[in-house]
Amino acid sequence: MFKRFWLWLGGALGKLLLLILAVGLLGWSMGEAYYGWKFSGPVATEEEIPAAEARYTQAIIEDAVRIVEQHRDNTRVLRDAHAKAHGCVKAEVTVLPDINNDLRAGVFSEPGKTWQAWMRLSNGNAYPQFDRVRDARGMAVKLLDVPGEKLMRSPAHLGEQDFVMFNHPVFFVRDVAEYRQNFAAQANGDKVGAFFPSLDPRTWEVRHLFIALKTLAPAPDSPVNTTYSSISPYKLGEANIKYRVIPDPQSCPPYERPEQNTALPNFLRSALYQQLSLDRVPACFALQVQKQNPAHYMPLEDTSVEWDEDISPFVTVASIKVPAQDFDSREQNLFCDNLSFNPWHGLPEHRPIGGINRLRKAVYEAVSAYRHQRNEAGTALSSSPSP
Ligand code: HEM
């Protein structure tokens, strides 16, 4: 009697599993077909600014400042995102001697030119949590002594060209309206509401939920051993591009990275310290750009869509070398905390474009000004250790 019951139950569960698998596969292939149809070209080559964007931007700034205060915990006021640094290191960015003619613009105009720079490596979270927690990892690079009129007139950033990236190729929202909805829900601790704002399935952002889950990835073995993407688009002279920084170990002396104890809270800083300060081995990267091909689906106003590399491959424009150095001092860590990176610190030839970048212009400036004022920090670069 019992045997028959168990056999029946086993069979029923097997069929249920098969049914779930079939429904899952059907859903997945329908999704693929839908996005294949929806994400097909051509696309605009100019920005398209929705009417409500300014209103949403203001609301986002208010939520961002609220988050900064929520995470303070009796510490200094930290960044609203990428609060924890693994270190700020000196770097040299050298334009390729044989850079393609059509990519020579802005800081890449002069083949062979070397720029001195600061590089800040970070975790993405607003709270400085243990490195082993799944997270995005950030890289921000600031070229110094860059001549020419800049997009933002702030005297503190007049000589700077910033590149701000994290290590995933796409963002978990498409535009400012969606960011407003998602961020407001998250600021109120409503993680489900961030991607499922109502019972109406047309408002569900399942694809973006998957992007968010993939973005929160396990840590690399070192902050210099992962690829960082701009995600959002920029001008490069007349062209529309995205950029990224990829590790280029072949351009540096061979180095076998010793395994770190990932149970330690700051093992990414330790890995950096081990390579640059103890083993005295530099780290090398390539800075690459990808041009928009508007005949294909490479939109300017949707940061959740990756531009297809088969259609438009990334091309190297500069090399980045992080020399062996001592970076982990009290003075330099404080200086690092007081730096402000912003994709809008830079030349008009590198102007950020698209909704998420327009939003970042207002938010980064507001949050940076707020934390500097609360920490009573002076102008960051005026008290810098020399690069
Ligand atoms: C393309 C997508 C984005 C990328 C690649 C990105 C990357 C980064 C990185 C790497 C940092 C740390 C910079 C540093 O080391 O100081 C940062 C900081 C920050 N991000 Fe983003 N971010 C993106 C989108 C956004 C958006 C949409 C917002 C909000 C509107 C935002 C708000 C901030 C804020 C407030 C800071 C701290 C600014 C400061 O206090 O100096 N980010 N971001």
Automatic annotation (TrEMBL):
<dbReference type="InterPro" id="IPR011614">
    <property type="entry name" value="Catalase_core"/>
</dbReference>
<dbReference type="InterPro" id="IPR018028">
    <property type="entry name" value="Catalase"/>
</dbReference>
<dbReference type="Pfam" id="PF00199">
    <property type="entry name" value="Catalase"/>
</dbReference>
<feature type="domain" description="Catalase core">
    <location>
        <begin position="57"/>
        <end position="185"/>
    </location>
</feature>
<protein>
    <recommendedName>
        <fullName>catalase</fullName>
        <ecNumber>1.11.1.6</ecNumber>
    </recommendedName>
</protein>
<dbReference type="InterPro" id="IPR020835">
    <property type="entry name" value="Catalase_sf"/>
</dbReference>
